[in-house]
Each structure stands twice: as C-alpha cells, then as structure tokens.
Amino acid sequence: MQIHLAEVLGFCFGVRRAIEQAEAALQEEGGVTTLGPLVHNPQETARLESAGIHVINTPAEAPGGTVVIRAHGARPEIFTELHRRKLHVVDATCPFVTKSQRIARQFAREGYTLVIVGHPDHPEVQGILGYAVGPAFVVTRPEEVAALPASIKPGVLAQTTVNEYTFDEVVQTIANRYPDYVVHNTVCSATRDRQEAARHLATQMDAVYVVGGRLSSNTNRLAEICAQVCPRTFLIETAEEINPTDLVGVEHVGITAGASTPNSIINAVVSRLHAIDLKSTAVRR
C-alpha cells in the first residue's frame, strides 16, 4: 500500500501565527487565556491547555492578565469590553479575516447590505457580522438566496474557509436576482490551496483520510470535496480511529489535513498506516 500526502495540508499561516503569539505571551507574561479555542482541534487545544493557555468563552471569565483573540477574530464590542476590564489584549486575528471585517464596514459606507456566504454559527462569521451597519444576512447555499429581502443591494463576501464552489454558486444566484450587487471573494488562499490539493489527491486515490477536528469548518469542507471524487473518504481526528478493514483492497491511500491539524497528528496517521500495511503483508505471506 502506498501512502500519499496532499501537496498542501495541515496548519495554515493564521493558525500557526495565533499559536505562536499565544505561546510567546505565555513565556513573557505568565497566565494567558484565549477567547474561545485557538484551533478547532481538540488534541491541540488539550496540548495548549496543559502548557498553561486556557480557554474562556466571554470577557467576564478572564481572570486578568493577557487575553488572546483567536484567528477567527471577534466583534468590536468584545475588544471594547476587554479593554474596559484593563486586560492586555493580543490580537491574533488572521489578516484574511481582518480584511473581511474591513470590507463589511466598506459595504455599509457604500450603501450595500452585507451578505456572508458561510455558516451562521461559525465564530469568524459572528465576528464579521459585528462590523456590519444595519441588517446583515448569512447564507450557506444558493437556495437560501430566495429568502433575502428583494429591496437590498447585496454586498457579498465569503467565510474564509467556505467551499469556493459553493461561494461561486451563491454569487451566481445573487447575480440572477439582483441588478445591483458587489462581490469580494474572501476565501483565503490557504483554504483555496488546501481544497485544490485535496481534490487533486482524491482523484488518484483508492481511499483518503482527512485528518482534523470534527468541529473544524475547513476540515469538513475538505472531507466533502474528497468524498465527491473518492467515495472511500474518512474524516478522523486521530490515528487510533483508522479501521484496518476500511483499507482492504486499497493500493493507494491519500492523506490531507485541516488548517488546524498539527504535524504531530499527521505523522501519527502516516505511522499507523505503515503499521497496518506491515501487518497486512505478514498475513498475506
């Protein structure tokens, strides 16, 4: 059995930057909390917790010291409340997300109504909504465009980790309905590169493992993309979840990983697959 890695996989720039900033703050100042988990990966979150980087959900929970804003960003009123409490704020918002926040404000100045293509409960989307003025809407698929008010001028942007094909479909539906609209494709380059690499890998594999947290939006998008071209696609969080019976008859197995997945977990999956292959060979002999 041959094991193939996607050309691009694992930690993205924004996630790596947020973790590095949190770890630097821990070394310099001691107690550090993060407003929400830095990554949607339970194993990495547990590692950070054991190192002394603790998760809080609201500014009121901060015990003092330093609070890190994760790569997903936060609403403006969150920053206001943290500063009111005289906490030291480390803003690790991904620059791609910051760009989306600026665009949301720009739409308001130009008379457009913000429409985000993404998932309404995602922390990045919730943060961007805080930069809108007036009504704003979130759609997850083209069919939902019909429910938008007829009188608006849509200003459309994307959750940075959304499936780009879905974004394009929503934009086309909006173009068919509204004569006056504007679009900024804010799917980040790291997301785009991972999705393209995953799709290319999956077309050549007998099976694909997508490694990452089940609550990670970008990891779930990778799994959807791979499953479209490789039915034997499995989303796993750890190497222990690999079931050897899923690999019966597999000659080429691919691995891709979400932007919140550390190399240590990817390497463990590779080692597990090698071990399964050796056992299988021993049985055949």
Q: How would you summarize this macromolecular structure in one to three sentences?
A:
With 285 residues, the protein is an alpha/beta fold. 42% of the residues lie in helices and 18% in strands.
Question: What does this entry look like structurally?
Answer:
The protein is α/β, with parallel strands linked by helices and 285 residues long. It has nine helices and twelve strands. The longest helix is centred in the last third of the chain and has 22 residues, at 263-284. The model is unreliable at 281-285 (pLDDT under 50).
Descriptors for this entry?
single chain, 285 residues, alpha/beta, Cobalt-precorrin-4 Transmethylase, domain 1, Rossmann fold, 4-stranded parallel sheet, 9 helices, 42% helix, 18% strand, flat, disordered C terminus
